Amino acid sequence: MSSCEQESHSSSSYTVILSPPPSERQSPWPAVFPIPVFSHNTELALRQGNEIYLREGTPLTSPRVKSDILERLAETMFAYTAYPNDEQRCAVAQALVDKHPCLKEPGSFSGMYGWQQSLKYKCGKYRTQRKALGSPELLINSLKHKLDDGKKPAKNIKKPKRAEVNYFPPHQPGETDETLENLRLELITASKRKDNVKTINDMMAQTYSLRRQEVVAQSPMVPELKERWPALFDPFQINEEFRRCTAVPLEPKFMFELDRHSPKLMQIFSDKGGAVGQRIKNLMMELIQDSGVSSSKKRDVTLKCLTEYMGESVQDLITDFHLLTLHCQMTPDYPTTIHW
What we know:
mainly alpha, 2% strand, disordered C terminus
């Protein structure tokens, strides 16, 4: 782990990260797609096929092997997203032929175009199978769940955005709309009590699937959402909800990227002229005058300079406040944090 990552991790170590329930995906789409292990017979055929391909350049052509590969790949891809896009299917095909060169297609410039197309149709069939098993993120797009003016197969398709991993998860085993609605009412009462962060976080995690149903299917206005889920608007829960949805810790990720881009940002700020440039230079003097300034202070100054650079008011967009008592107990030396 790099020093920037360590600092970012330590700066958010107060966050209670819980393991996601079994119904939620736990990882975003990987940078390098992991080709799964296929059936025993398929693995034997691939091993022999790779040896022959490296020796003679003859690709492996077996409908049975291809069918098994496509089935296993579709299952693995669904573990990351129900609706893989062209870029993701291309990445899977590339990883497949890299690991098993015998699967390269003769006559194809990339050697994998046919695999991309086959994955497209196989993923569609796999979604049909999962829809029959009651997958909520697929049922939401079925005709009976659409409004009367939108009952067409290709109209108003609800899909996750690029970073959304747990877009429309099913309820946890044993939970129903009724049990989660009762828990939501208890959550409203619990959110009014102080020093109750752990309990609230557990209840928010448990009711996540119900909350996503409301957000995706009903698209409520912010005041309505705030009335029904007041705990969601707590800074701590904003971080946790982002993690539930994307499987990425918001604050550590943000701090790491901020540290990584800070040198370039500071150079851009230094070149700014006019009244805005002068205000930025005044802010940057805090860093120039103190060579031993902490990483937390550097982040504060960088964000304030960025706000000025974008023509916004620092006072209107940034609020400094001390962390909740629980956070301070967990990391008593943690400095004041900036929240947007």
